[in-house]
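User: Can you write out an input/output pair for a complex, sequences first and structure second?

Assistant: Here is one pair. Inputs:
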Amino acid sequence: MSESEITEHKLTQLKALEAESIHIIREVVAEFRNPVMLYSVGKDSSVLLHLARKAFYPAKLPFPLLHVDTGYKFREMYEFRDNYCKEVGADLIVRRNEDAIAKGMNPKDFGVARCCGLLKTQGLLDALEEGEYDAAFGGARRDEERSRAKERVFSMRDEFGQWDPKNQRPELWSIYNGRIHEGESVRVFPISNWTEMDVWLYIREEKIPIVPLYFAKERLMVERKNMLIPYYEEMKDQLLEGEEPKMVMSRFRTLGCSPCTGAVRSSATNMDEIVIEAAAARRSERETRIIDHGSNSMEDKKKEGYF
Amino acid sequence: MTELNIKMTKEIELLRLVTVGSVDDGKSTLIGRLLVDTKGAFEDQLLAVRKQRGAETVASAAEIDLAMLTDGLSAEREQGITIDVAYRYFATPKRKFIMADCPGHEQYTRNMVTGASTASAAIILIDARNGVMQQTRRHTHILGLLNIPHLIVAVNKMDLVGFDQKVYEGIRSEMQAYCEKQGVQDLICIPMSALEGDMVAVRGENLAWYEGLTLLETLETLSALGDIDSKPFRFPVQLVNRPQTAELPDYRGFMGAIASGTVKVGDEVVVASTGLSSKVAEIVTFDGNLQEAFAPQSITLTLEDDIDISRGDMLVHPQAVPSDTKELVANVCWIGSEPLSVRKKYLLKHTTSTVKAMVNSIDFRRNINTLDKESADELEMNEIGQITFKLLKPLFYDSYADNRSTGSFIVIDTFTNNTVGAGMIV
């Protein structure tokens, strides 16, 4: 921490957010029997993991990381995940809905909603049940989407992992109620109050490693419904009529599954340029996520247990 | 944005605020206006809103239903009301804001208390046509009870009263008189038209007679953190850090967020519950040890002596220890659906400690409209009253008026585990 940050006892807004997040993470470890941190390999997960390391320094993370893998993540994400978790000494658990994967679940033939529902939501619920976790940290932020704006920091889930937005516990001051009944669990969102801009500024400030896909590069892309979809050799048979892969200088603002996450045209090759681009952005980051489109989709998915 | 601007964005402070008022006062419109004018709403969110309004509506920027941007749940959009607290984020080159958007109806008092509990400033909306209503007084009283440092009265819909200065002055003087009676210290009144945009983010052309700051300028210049760092040191221990590794076999660090005050290496600290004392050996963070730390930083402390400390204990300044009691008197806003009643048992969570408590007496219930004290056998949802609890073990506290962190608690129902009350220690 530099000198300038403690003069006059003022905290910069990033340091204030950091302090709040660390407090939340510690409360969960103090009050729950078996917490787990959901790790999606994206930038928000990177921030969350970094905050958790700060919270328990000099001790190791007192909980494992859980990656609910769909099998459709970008190759760069898998590489990054394995290297980074090893580097920071995190205990990584990977779970997949093998049943659905074996049945060939994919967004093109079965639809995005069904594919997400089985590979992500069901995969997550199964993994949480299997691990008997009573608290799961997630990197969701309230600024991402309007139903997430109503989400609590400690978000209760019933025995079926479902969310009831009309019946949420009020959260007062910074006192979190971690009491639950047998079978219930909580999702905890320590970076609820961060915006996309805060995440980027913090990554830049703290030099947090992120998947290289976030940085602009000439990449082989297909243009589909105004979205840039990265092209891999194995997608050859899935190309639609008139589609032709071409090199585009582009990057990802958010990372999900490869068939459903679009890139944006960008020349931002370093953190400064990404921050500048985020500041100038006129469109929200979730626009490049197919999953969010359609009326009410996030609220409905959240009720069912989606993150 | 240039290199210099990145630096500024990084160094700006955080201000938490709350807005209260009903739909009819134009609250959602005001928030929408702040989001749009500070670019806190993205183009695709605006487009989504336009889509939902259907093809028959003209979708010019001025006519977008800004309320549709802020009401996040489908039930809210169906009913055209805001049910739950929603949190909104926007930033200017000077500050980042977290805004709790609270419903105004009486039955949602609990949401207002929730949203206001973390706020350093509150915006109370008044419809200039209606003036100060009973609801305005109720909101102001509750915000006063929650000890919000700055109250801003937004006299909205000035466009509908012809931007008449007399209308504004009437409302201003009435609010000032009311706030003085309530003991509210910092009151700021601003005339505005959220719909037209006058005096929200820009001055506009219609309110030339008003010489004060715009709403956004006001929000950018209020003191953000208040004075929590100048109050006595309070450090509720969240966890004890014991890595027990080969390198750190005997390490014991006390983890927590500083609730108030500052701490330096070498400072004497006392455990409030036992009176045992020691000196601060190190202030540990991931980024290196500090010489000094202050509220609301999250840190780990190591002490010179090996004394018994665990979660729920509070390390405090030796010359300014908190009060302790087994009979706690507090203003309580009831938020549970089952009423509070005498002799009922609950759990109180205060900082990091949870104690068993029984309601000894309901000293009075505050009539939220007349503000009179009334006698009562129960406190129903959304009611506020003064309660005396009997505690199983002593609680170490400051009064809420002195310290919002160590003077507040939540009431937990032991059967449902729900949060049913918000307590402010008298």
